[in-house]
Design brief:
Elements: H1 18-23, H2 26-32, H3 45-50, E1 59-68, E2 71-79, E3 91-99, E4 102-109, E5 114-122, E6 127-135, E7 141-150, E8 154-161, E9 166-173, E10 178-187, E11 192-203, E12 206-213, E13 217-226, E14 229-240, E15 243-255, E16 259-266, E17 270-280, E18 283-292, E19 297-307
Parallel strand pairs: 1-19
Antiparallel strand pairs: 1-2, 2-3, 3-4, 4-5, 5-6, 6-7, 7-8, 8-9, 9-10, 10-11, 11-12, 12-13, 13-14, 14-15, 15-16, 16-17, 17-18, 18-19
Amino acid sequence: MSLGTLPQIPTTTTKNSPLAFVTESRVWKYIQNLPYPGKIEEVGHLSKALNSDDSFDGFKIDVGINHQEGIDSAHSFNICTPNENNPIPKYNYQLVYAKGNTFCLGRLDSDRKLVGKIGSQFLDNRLGIYVVNSMNKEFQTSLQLESDFRLNFANIGFKLDNQGTRILGFYTSLTKNFSFGYESTYVPMQGAHIQQIVARRNSGPLSYFGSVNNMLQMNLGVIFKKDNLEAASDFMAGMSNNGFMSHTSVSARYHFRNNALKARVDTAGELQFTLDEGINPFVKVQYVATMNYFTNEYKFCAGLTFNK
């Protein structure tokens, strides 16, 4: 047989092949149209941000500098009296390099804690691999490997540190408005194995989320976001060393043209108002007023942020 008469190898998938059956099936087409849900640790992140405590001790100044495209640095100064309830260092410096698929971060504070993170994206930004290293003033070092793989409809994440702690998470969209995930955390130093399931449902401007784990702990929340208004409610309950405990917080933030006003109240008796006032595109002033109507304690804070 001459070379001219050799049979040609097909370059396209035949209709009867297993691959064609998968790619042309209704299930595959349904999966391909599902939205990307994000990472499992990002579920309810807006609620956590809105319901976080903005107060601090003393006075703070933040300075952010954009040196060039992809290179940013930040200086944070905290003018306060150190005490056991105020772990924030007096000074913190951070440098970030992010260009293309490469990411590098370095952070150093006045307590001599050093943090470094370096990593990159591969496979058309579907696979991310990062290494995180931290060291305190006693030269105790922690090393962690982080990796996440992104599909069109799901995310798979894995973390491992030098103490043997392992975290494996999987989060996927089941419909266009509903996503579900599972996370397993093993901490050998404590002999603990925590398993958690997470779910989220989107309905217009509303987003409902919830999680429950094998340690008899649960978290439920709802987020509302429309135009300039953001609001969230967060409920946590579970067993602890002191028995059953629960906590509920409700918050809302409204963005004006140059300002933003946030209010938060919780079942611990705390009422807090935060005003971010933009003086100009480069300067912002933050005022935080907090009152606890159970203990009759109150606090007022002020800070400055400069961006260049």
